[in-house]
Design a protein that fits this description.
The chain is α+β, with helices and mostly antiparallel strands. The chain is 25% helix and 31% strand. α2 (94-106) packs across α3 and α2 packs parallel to α4.
């Protein structure tokens, strides 16, 4: 199936007095997998519904393959929507759930009748065609053995695959997925996102995926569009987002559960003062504004307390997390930081230990008080 590119131009949406979306512009290439990422209530699901035609934008336009979609009914947009709640028909079998969109589109009301329908000219051929496409789709999703079951007899992961099959069977040009993994447990979520990645690779369909889970976005996406408060803050490949967040909101969201932050005075020659210590940060070179120093726990190292260039710190708490541990420390002037170290190293530490903390100067960020670092691709263009 030939995928379509998707253009979202200056989309705005209000609910009452609240601006839900403000001037969203995004270009998605044909066959690209783009994730809309952001906290709950940021507008990402509303944007997906506008693309699908289930909500009407107050301003802006949506185009797919060069065709304007604003006046096109949802059923005629050649899109498939996968809902968080699966939205399966409980009284129908897996087979009939997958076949439902084909039956509604390709068979008349009379042809759908069990006895009379078979007697109408061409109905048998159309039904055979539907059967074959359901068989192909169920094979791709490994649902062959479940075709006679009803949704109540399926696991959460199986129901999600049926919902995907119902979307896939029409061979749409664009897939829209609204947090399809949110209702699955952790292990099943990881397995199912692998299935989605495999299907996208095989089908090469343009896909817009909504989630608030950073790991999902990083694992699945060609690019990630980060939305806060109805505004598109940054669009970039997952690795680029990790390295170069454009502002502090993006850095905080992508660094969960912890991001080290410290308000600092204007740097001099890239040097920032933390208590009585001065640290040179690459990101602060050339800036003359006060701002915030930020760095991830994995970009901090714990050393001996007299290590050259290290900040004196005291261990206040250790959180063990399997192969890693998060060590919470207090520094001078009331600053608090978190360092991620190996579980083996953490076994030798105790609350109250006096150590030195070093910061990776190449990976730390300086966010000036006027907002954006002005780095990375946040234009939304391909």
């Amino acid at each position: 199936m030939a995928a379509l590119d998707l253009h979202i131009d200056d989309i705005g949406k209000r609910f009452g007095a609240i601006d839900v979306l403000r001037g969203i512009c995004l270009r998605v290439a044909a066959g690209e997998f783009v994730t809309l990422l952001g906290p709950s209530g940021c507008g990402k699901s509303t944007l997906l519904r506008i693309i699908a035609g289930l909500e009407r934008a107050d301003q802006g336009h949506v185009r797919a393959g060069g065709r304007g979609l604003d006046a096109v009914a949802p059923k005629d947009r050649d899109l498939a929507f996968v809902f968080q709640s699966y939205a399966l028909y409980p009284h129908l079998s897996v087979h009939d759930n997958i076949a439902a969109p084909l039956v509604m589109r390709e068979l008349s009301s009379l042809e759908r009748l069990p006895v009379i329908g078979a007697l109408l000219p061409g109905a048998i051929q159309r039904k055979r065609s539907i059967q074959e496409r359901v068989r192909q789709t169920s094979g791709l999703l490994k649902l062959d053995a479940l075709l006679e079951r009803r949704p109540s007899a399926l696991s959460g992961g199986q129901r999600q695959r049926v919902a995907l099959g119902r979307a896939m069977v029409r061979k749409p040009k664009i897939f829209l997925m609204d947090e399809p993994l949110a209702n699955l447990d952790a292990a099943l979520r990881i397995h199912t996102r692998g299935e989605i990645a495999r299907l996208h690779k095989e089908m090469e369909t343009t896909t817009i995926f909504v989630t608030h889970d950073q790991a999902e976005a990083a694992a699945l996406s060609d690019r990630v569009a980060v939305i806060f408060g109805g505004e598109l803050r940054q669009v970039a490949a997952p690795a680029d987002l990790y390295r170069e967040p454009v502002d502090l909101d993006v850095a905080r969201f992508l660094a969960q559960p912890f991001l080290n932050e410290l308000a600092v005075a204007a740097p001099i020659g890239g040097g920032l003062m933390i208590g009585g210590s001065r640290i040179i940060i690459r990101d602060a070179l050339g800036s003359g504004l006060a701002g915030t120093l930020a760095f991830r726990p994995e970009h901090a190292t714990l050393a001996e307390k007299d290590h050259p260039g290290a900040l004196p710190v005291r261990v206040t708490r250790i959180e063990h997390a399997g192969i890693d541990a998060h060590v919470f420390v207090d520094a001078e002037a009331g600053a608090q930081f978190v360092a991620r170290i190996s579980a083996e190293r953490a076994r030798s530490l105790r609350d109250g230990d006096n150590l030195g903390l070093t910061i990776d100067a190449e990976r730390a960020w300086f966010f000036p008080s006027n907002g954006s670092r002005q780095r990375g691709d946040h234009s939304g263009t391909v």
